């Protein structure tokens, strides 16, 4: 980027140039208007003065003063002509230069050049009264020298003052904008030093309560969110790596033992162990992919879903698989929501699997529609969830009984998937205490009408 392009791209330069040009245009136009107005006022003053002089001469003629005496004023800035009815000059204060009439009718001439005289004149002609005979028209001229000099001096003064004012304003704007943007430049330099390895660093917040300190606060809050997101991402990668490593280690260990001691582990047992651990890997990878897709916030395809049908299908599937506890669906009634039938099926499946895994003897499922919500309840009579862990249980890889759930195939992702799906369809999920003393999971979903 060239020096010129960098300068024109600077906010400081652009603001200074725009402000200076605006003031220059406004003051230049204002100066022209002032000069014109003052010039007009001075010209009108000349006309009024010449008219008064003509009236005074008319009064003298009416009192019997001769035309020659009345035309003599003794002033260099005044011309006088007295004209009869035939248009001839009867008398004049400068006969050599005023042989020809300056006007032959009453009226005003703004600028008249008189041969032999340096100055120009504003001429006023008025008809003489009847008592002023033989004079019919009185012509008086006033020199425009003083008016022209005043107008020229004012134009010169404004021509000097306007650039000085614009220059002073430009300097003030340049300094003011520079001082106002200095904290922004400091924040830019600090932000340039923040990298993924130095994300905990934060921007210095300038003093005050205007837009710049608020911008610093907002940027720091954004960095906090990014830091939290990266921390969760690192934790997720660490946990996922740990979870994926466990079944792989079992497969590797079993294979090594089978190779070293073929008499201890037969082909059937090796195949069973590999299939079991491979199933765990497949389920874990599928859960991770589902979470990644949900957290990408895709536009989910929604349709009317009969949630009671999904509940009954999932309960029947568990019963057919030989669930070790009783499944009570006597409290399930009709309830229709809107969402993805596949994903909502995953919600019900995960909640039931979690309840069966922790229940002692019975899992009870309830479903009913109230107002604008469909409420799904899944209760078990197990140990329950301690209050201090009721929020954390929906995080990834959180397990209350690490050893037991690992042996029974729990990955710690089922409830995280439940929360992600429920939030994606506009619902909520919480955990509390069931009447039987175990855990109660409550899912609220919008009705189909919503």
UniProtKB/TrEMBL annotation:
It catalyses: ATP + protein L-histidine = ADP + protein N-phospho-L-histidine. Keywords: Kinase, Membrane, Phosphoprotein, Transferase, Transmembrane, Transmembrane helix, Two-component regulatory system. The chain crosses the membrane at residues 15-38, 157-177. Residues 178-231 form the HAMP domain. InterPro entries: HAMP_dom, HATPase_C_sf, HATPase_dom, His_kinase_dom, HisK_dim/P_dom, HisK_dim/P_sf, Sig_transdc_His_kin-like_C, TCS_sensor_his_kinase. CDD domains: HAMP (cd06225), HATPase (cd00075), HisKA (cd00082). Residues 239-449 form the Histidine kinase domain. This is histidine kinase.
């Amino acid at each position: 980027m060239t020096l010129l392009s960098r300068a024109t791209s600077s906010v400081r330069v652009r603001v200074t140039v725009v402000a200076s040009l605006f003031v220059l245009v406004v003051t230049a136009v204002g100066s022209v208007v002032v000069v014109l107005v003052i010039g007009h006022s001075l010209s009108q003053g000349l006309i009024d003065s010449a008219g008064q002089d003509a009236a005074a001469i008319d009064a003298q003629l009416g009192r019997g003063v001769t035309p020659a005496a009345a035309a003599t004023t003794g002033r260099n800035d005044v011309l006088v002509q007295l004209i009869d009815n035939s248009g001839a000059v009867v008398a004049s204060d400068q006969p050599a230069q005023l042989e020809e009439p300056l006007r032959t009718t009453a009226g005003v001439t703004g600028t008249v050049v008189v041969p032999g005289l340096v100055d120009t004149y504003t001429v006023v002609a008025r008809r003489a009264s009847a008592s002023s005979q033989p004079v019919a028209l009185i012509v008086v001229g006033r020199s425009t020298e003083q008016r022209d000099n005043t107008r020229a001096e004012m134009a010169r003064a404004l021509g000097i003052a306007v650039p000085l004012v614009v220059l002073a304003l430009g300097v003030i704007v340049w300094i003011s904008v520079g001082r106002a943007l200095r904290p922004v430049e400091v924040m830019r330099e600090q932000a340039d030093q923040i990298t993924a390895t130095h994300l905990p660093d934060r921007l210095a917040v300038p003093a005050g309560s205007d837009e710049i300190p608020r911008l610093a606060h907002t940027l720091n809050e954004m960095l906090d969110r990014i830091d939290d997101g990266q921390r969760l991402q690192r934790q997720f990668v660490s946990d996922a790596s740990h979870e994926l490593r466990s079944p792989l280690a079992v497969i590797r260990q079993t294979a090594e033992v089978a190779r070293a001691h073929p008499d201890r582990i037969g082909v059937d047992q090796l195949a069973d162990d590999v299939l079991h651990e491979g199933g765990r890997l497949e389920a874990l990878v599928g859960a991770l992919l589902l979470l990644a897709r949900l957290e990408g916030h895709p536009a989910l395809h929604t349709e009317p879903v009969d949630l009671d049908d999904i509940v009954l299908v999932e309960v029947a599937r568990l019963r057919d698989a030989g669930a070790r506890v009783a499944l009570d669906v006597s409290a399930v009634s009709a309830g229709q929501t809107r969402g993805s039938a596949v994903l909502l099926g995953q919600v019900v499946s995960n909640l039931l699997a979690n309840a069966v895994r922790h229940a002692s003897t019975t899992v009870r499922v309830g479903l009913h529609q109230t107002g604008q919500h469909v409420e799904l309840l899944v209760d078990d009579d197990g140990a329950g969830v301690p209050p201090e862990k009721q929020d954390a249980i929906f995080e990834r890889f959180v397990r209350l009984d690490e050893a037991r759930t690992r042996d029974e195939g729990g990955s710690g992702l089922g409830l995280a998937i439940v929360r992600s799906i429920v939030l994606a369809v506009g619902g909520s999920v919480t955990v509390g205490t069931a009447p039987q003393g175990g855990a109660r999971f409550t899912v609220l979903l919008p009705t189909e009408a919503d």
